[in-house]
Amino acid sequence: MDCESAIIEMDPVTDLVLAVGPGKERIPVESAILKAASPVFASMFSPPWLESQSKEISLPEDDPDAMRFITLTLSYHNEHELVTRPRTPQEILQIAIAADKYDLRTALKFVLDFLFREASKTCPVAEIKDSSQTAMAGKDFVYLCAAAYVLDWCEYFSKFCLGLMCQHASPISTLMDDELISTILPAKFFGMWISLTP
Q1: SS3 8
Q2: What gap in Å lies between CA 161 and CA 144, rounded to an integer?
Q3: Chain segment 99-119, per-residue pLDDT in tens
Q4: C-alpha distance from residue 102 to each of 63, 121, 163, 175 (Å)
Q5: Which residues lie across from 56 on neighbouring strands?
Q6: pLDDT in tens, 82-95
Q7: Are the beta carbons of 172 and 190 closer than 8 angstroms?
């Protein structure tokens, strides 16, 4: 099943629709659950915010897949295939960004920890000395570093930095082209790696 085209049926208890991303992907949710989990959503769905008067909230800057994962998880749909499938490092970063933006760190603490632990086991490492394959593995480590940085999780940040240092052979400057990474990680992060490059 293609996750991008997946349609989540409107549950009888849902009372609100999130229109997420540039394509305004519609995600039905129960506002009470989001309000209980997130002080940001609690403010958005309460007076005097304009959004409190609407049954559809536009979130054009958010990632639809990350918001689907978060809303399903908060609604206890833990067996849904959109929740149970393995997540790529880039997807984990998008989930971390949304969790930080909507102050969901506490509500999603154990889920985020699970995602990081699983990523620690499965993060791809190049087996051959092919520069493109090695760079891909290095970028995965950087996505995970960025996710841990967003959430202020020092233990995982250190772990993924160590993985990057041990596994990434090509110049770190090749990883600075990713716009998402460069807006999250500070310049000194890249400066540190550049200074370590022989």
Answers
A1: coil
A2: 9
A3: 999 999 999 999 999 999 888
A4: 13, 28, 29, 28
A5: 17
A6: 777 888 899 999 99
A7: yes
Q: d(Cα 185, Cα 148) in Å, to the nearest integer?
A: 10
Residue linked to tokens 């295939």: 81
Sheet containing strand 25-29, strands side by side: 25-29, 16-20, 56-59
Could you tell me where the DSSP H helices lie in 45-130? 64-74, 81-84, 89-101, 109-122
**Residue 115 structure tokens:** 């995602």
Tell me the C-alpha distance between 92 and 188, whole Å: 23
Structure tokens at 49: 């915010």
- Element of type H or E holding 19: strand 16-20
pTM: 0.80
For residue 10, give the amino acid letter. Answer: M
Residue 145, pLDDT > 70, answer: yes
